């Protein structure tokens, strides 16, 4: 550990499930990296839906959907949230990771079930371990991705891990490829906008579902057509049919709810519906015959695998993706930042910057 690393740091600490009052910005000890870990000075950390849902305990439990719980169940308090982390490695827990010191990095926040390219995420920094809503964070050295060669800023890099990682996982699991017609729901949010950008970069023709007033940034991300979100799912389905008269090869869905049964009939034979969210409703009735008679695949997708994250990192280093930063707040104003995030008036990502970063 170098002399320049202080003993204490600023952190936003979640003390319990609840509203913004459950978050306390206070001074806490700087963590020390153990063997196989490094210490990262956080330069920027982005906000995600999972931060708000975890704070509220809104994930429920199997058999008890109203139970207060994090996305994997219990949460140990106090907890420093924040899975989107970009910064500089300042210390290593052992000599094997010394080569990372001084590097600009983005952190893969997933905690995997095993060490393999196709491993499944079973935890997340900021949920099952302390995350990046602080001046420093410790994480596994092998989860550091060197971004010295990337043209992206720290704030842009901080937008990548959760939103773009989740979107990459959806595209990979759904087999999205060039020449296909793909519908993306929730297209102005973090994951949705990332999916639009990444699918367009693969050469897909993207139809984006978004709210009125957000059409232009969604088009700028690569959407070839925009369908306005409507309270009546049948209206969305009708507009989708006009935008894609030959049907959809795939749907990348971060909303769920009644859009699924309304739009399922517009998916071509052999198509895929990939879902990674349920903000529009978690319980959905639909006709199973639309799946098996037409060989349509319904694919659940949570976060990403190490192989997915490696593909995303390559895109970031090459400059093939450039996240849209909607707003930046000092870490000490996390309550205001989360309030702005919850209003959903923005397009892109909201980023927190620790003091002195």
Structure description:
The protein is of the alpha/beta class and 357 residues long. It folds into 2 domains: 204 residues, Medium-chain alcohol dehydrogenases, catalytic domain (Quinone Oxidoreductase, Chain A, domain 1); 126 residues, NAD(P)-binding Rossmann-like Domain (Rossmann fold, 3-Layer(aba) Sandwich), CATH 3.40.50. It has 10 helices and 18 strands. The strands form 4 sheets. Strands 3, 5, 6, 9, 10, 17 and 18 form a 7-stranded mixed β-sheet that branches. Strands 13-12-11-14-15-16 form a 6-stranded parallel β-sheet, with helices on both faces. Helix 3 packs across helix 4 and helix 3 crosses helix 9. The longest helix has 14 residues. The protein is globular and about 60 Å long.
Short description:
The protein has 357 residues and is an alpha/beta fold. It has ten helices and 18 strands.
Which secondary structure elements does this structure contain, and how are they paired or packed?
Layout: E1 8-14, E2 23-29, E3 37-46, H1 49-56, E4 79-80, E5 84-92, E6 104-107, E7 110-112, E8 121-124, E9 136-140, E10 144-146, H2 154-158, H3 160-173, E11 181-184, H4 190-201, E12 205-210, H5 215-220, E13 225-228, H6 233-243, E14 248-253, H7 259-263, E15 267-275, H8 289-292, E16 297-300, H9 306-318, E17 325-330, H10 334-343, E18 349-353
Parallel strand pairs: 11-12, 11-14, 12-13, 14-15, 15-16, 17-18
Antiparallel strand pairs: 1-2, 1-4, 3-5, 3-9, 3-18, 5-6, 6-10, 7-8
Spell out the helices and strands N to C.
Answer: EEEHEEEEEEEHHEHEHEHEHEHEHEHE
Catalogue the unreliable spans: none
CATH topology name of the largest domain: Quinone Oxidoreductase, Chain A, domain 1
Query: How many helical stretches?
Result: 10
Annotated CATH architecture of the largest domain: Alpha-Beta Complex
Mean pLDDT: 93
How far from one another are the termini? 19 Å
Total strand count, please?
18
Helix content: 10-25%
What is the class of the largest domain in the CATH system?
Alpha Beta
SS-derived structural category: alpha/beta
Task: Provide the number of structural domains.
Answer: 2
Radius of gyration computed on alpha carbons: 20 Å
- Principal-axis shape equals globular
Assign the CATH superfamily of the largest domain: Medium-chain alcohol dehydrogenases, catalytic domain
Task: Tell me the β content.
Answer: 25-35%
């Amino acid at each position: 550990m170098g002399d320049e690393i202080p003993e204490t740091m600023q952190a936003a600490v979640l003390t319990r499930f609840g509203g913004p009052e459950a978050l306390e910005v206070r001074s806490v000890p700087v963590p020390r990296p153990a063997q196989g870990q490094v210490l990262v000075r956080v330069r920027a950390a982005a906000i995600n839906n999972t931060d708000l849902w975890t704070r509220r305990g809104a994930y429920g439990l199997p058999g008890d959907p109203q139970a207060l719980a994090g996305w994997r169940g219990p949460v140990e308090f106090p907890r420093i949230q924040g899975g989107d982390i970009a910064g500089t490695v300042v210390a290593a827990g052992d000599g094997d990771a010394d080569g990372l010191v001084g590097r600009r990095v983005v952190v893969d926040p997933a905690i995997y079930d095993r060490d393999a390219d196709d491993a499944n995420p079973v935890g997340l920094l900021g949920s099952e371990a302390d995350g990046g809503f602080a001046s420093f964070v410790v994480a596994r050295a092998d989860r550091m991705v060197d971004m010295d060669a990337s043209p992206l800023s720290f704030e842009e890099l901080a937008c990548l891990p959760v939103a773009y990682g989740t979107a990459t996982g959806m595209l990979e699991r759904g087999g999205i490829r060039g020449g296909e017609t793909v519908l993306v729901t929730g297209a102005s949010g973090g994951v949705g906008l990332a999916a639009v950008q990444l699918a367009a970069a693969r050469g897909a023709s993207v139809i984006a579902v978004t709210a009125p007033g957000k059409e232009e940034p969604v088009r700028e991300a690569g959407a070839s057509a925009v369908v306005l979100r409507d309270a009546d799912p049948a209206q969305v389905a009708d507009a989708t049919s006009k935008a894609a008269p030959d049907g959809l090869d795939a749907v990348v869905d971060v909303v769920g709810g009644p859009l699924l049964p309304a739009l399922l009939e517009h998916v071509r034979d052999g198509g895929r519906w990939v879902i990674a969210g349920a903000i529009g409703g978690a319980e959905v009735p639909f006709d199973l015959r639309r799946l098996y008679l037409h060989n349509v695949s319904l694919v659940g997708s949570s976060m990403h695998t190490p192989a997915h994250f490696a593909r995303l990192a390559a895109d970031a280093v090459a400059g093939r993706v450039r996240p849209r930063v909607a707003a930046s707040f000092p870490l000490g104003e996390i309550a205001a930042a989360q309030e702005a995030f919850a209003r959903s008036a923005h397009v892109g990502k909201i980023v927190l910057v620790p003091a002195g970063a």
